[in-house]
Design brief:
With about 280 residues, the protein is mostly helical. It folds into two domains: about 100 residues, no CATH class; about 110 residues. The N and C termini lie far apart (about 135 Å).
């Protein structure tokens, strides 16, 4: 036999204490109002058909709520207290079985990001991580890009040619100075005269070759080389070196040599000094 719930009109077994659809308690006698009351009614599980002892809330076989509301105990104010002597009084209900629930497939795991990269999200692009051995600081990069001779890829070449011009000037000064000194020294050796400026006498007055446009090609070569080195370094204190070389040669060594040459060659040397300048 069955009976209808007065709230939801659901069909229930005649021995049910609560509506299996909405959990509404049925009007029963005071003796049967308690789960532990002595009664001849057996709690038959509507899910698995297992016969449970009177007063049992959950099916001992499948864990179904015998009150009727699936996986949900009846409200506390409607659940009667267990009767004295009930061996199941105070025990927790058995675990609820979720076998009757539809199994929802979990979302597939997101693909793992490459090692060393931050997570990749849709619509974004993972940033490039440069090799640590080739990485340079931002300040170094900015300093490099602000160099006059730096031109980014695809950009028009810089019109600032200062470093190139300085390099050419340095090369010309040093090469000219070395060539001038070597030529003058070889000429002195070939003519058999002394190279040492502090020698007491000179065997011959040389007036050709580089001596045809400067009377002191070796001192001029020293000043030229020192000037080229100063341009190469680029620090202004370095320009004091060629100035010091020029001053020492012009006011210390050259006057001493000119006096010696005048004493030895006389009018021939005076005529030479009138034709050729001391420096250039």
């Amino acid at each position: 036999m069955t009976k209808l719930c007065s709230v939801c009109s659901a069909e229930n077994r005649d021995e049910a204490l609560f509506c299996r659809a909405c959990g509404t308690p049925f009007a029963v006698s005071p003796a049967a109002a308690s789960f532990g009351a002595e009664a001849s009614v057996e709690n038959i599980c509507s899910e698995c058909g297992f016969r449970n002892k009177p007063g049992i809330r959950y099916c001992a076989n499948c864990g179904m709520n015998l009150a009727g509301a699936e996986n949900e105990a009846p409200p506390g104010d409607l659940a009667p207290a267990p009767a004295p002597g009930d061996p199941y009084a105070g025990l927790s209900p058995p675990p609820i079985s979720y076998a009757s629930f539809a199994t929802v497939a979990p979302y597939p795991p997101a693909p793992a990001a490459p090692s060393g990269y931050p997570p990749v999200f849709e619509g974004t692009q993972a940033p490039d991580i440069p090799d640590a051995d080739a990485a340079i600081t931002i300040r170094q990069q900015e300093a490099f890009e602000t160099r006059p001779d730096f031109a980014p890829a695809g950009a028009a070449p810089s019109r600032n040619r200062t470093p190139i011009v300085v390099g050419v000037v340095v090369a010309l000064l040093i090469i000219a100075g070395v060539a001038l000194a070597v030529t003058a020294a070889r000429l002195f050796r070939r003519e058999g005269t002394e190279i040492n400026p502090t020698s007491p006498t000179n065997r011959k007055l040389v007036t050709f070759g580089p001596f045809n446009f400067t009377r002191n090609p070796m001192y001029l070569s020293l000043v030229t080389i020192a000037l080229g080195i100063a341009f190469s370094v680029g620090a202004w204190p370095m320009f004091l070196v060629p100035i010091a070389v020029f001053a020492t040669a012009n006011w210390v060594h050259i006057p001493f040599e000119e006096a010696k040459m005048r004493r030895q060659f006389g009018e021939a040397y005076d005529d030479y000094t009138r034709r050729v300048r001391r420096w250039i």
